[in-house]
Design a protein that fits this description.
- The chain is mostly helical and 126 residues long.
- It is built from five helices and two strands.
- The chain has one domain.
- The longest helix is centred in the middle third of the chain and has 29 residues.
Length: 126
């Protein structure tokens, strides 16, 4: 019940809706540029994860290979570093208030996802 409440509050006040829209737009752009479709799939994964982050986590896919690692390096250079930086800045800003601390922690949880999204999968936490 607490996870559901935190997710609803995150969606409304913690920028979950805005993040999901941003990642969704990035995914549409990646799908339009056919070569970047794998990055579009990763952006959709990030949109889903940023929409409802409490009670979920990222784990490495067991079948992720060298191609996903190389694509992660490209992602890091092109988009990952500024996405991670924006999550860090938002997390610090949200941690300034006591009420915003859970939202700041959720933003910090999104930093590794923004840096290395390929070869990862979103799973429910027990």
């Amino acid at each position: 019940m607490i996870r559901f409440l935190l997710n609803v509050l995150w969606f409304v006040f913690g920028s979950g809706f805005v993040l999901a829209i941003g990642y969704g737009i990035a995914a549409l752009i990646c799908f339009a540029l056919v070569v970047t479709i794998p990055f579009g799939v990763a952006a959709l994964r990030l949109a889903s994860y940023s929409l409802w982050p409490f009670g979920r986590t990222l784990v490495p896919k067991p079948d992720a290979g060298l191609a996903s690692g190389a694509a992660n390096v490209v992602w890091l250079v092109v988009a990952g570093w500024w996405l991670a930086l924006s999550h860090i800045v938002a997390g610090v800003a949200q941690c300034v208030t006591i009420i915003g601390i859970p939202f700041g922690i959720a933003n910090f949880k999104l930093v590794p996802a923004a840096l290395w999204p390929l070869g990862q999968q979103v799973v429910e936490t027990p």
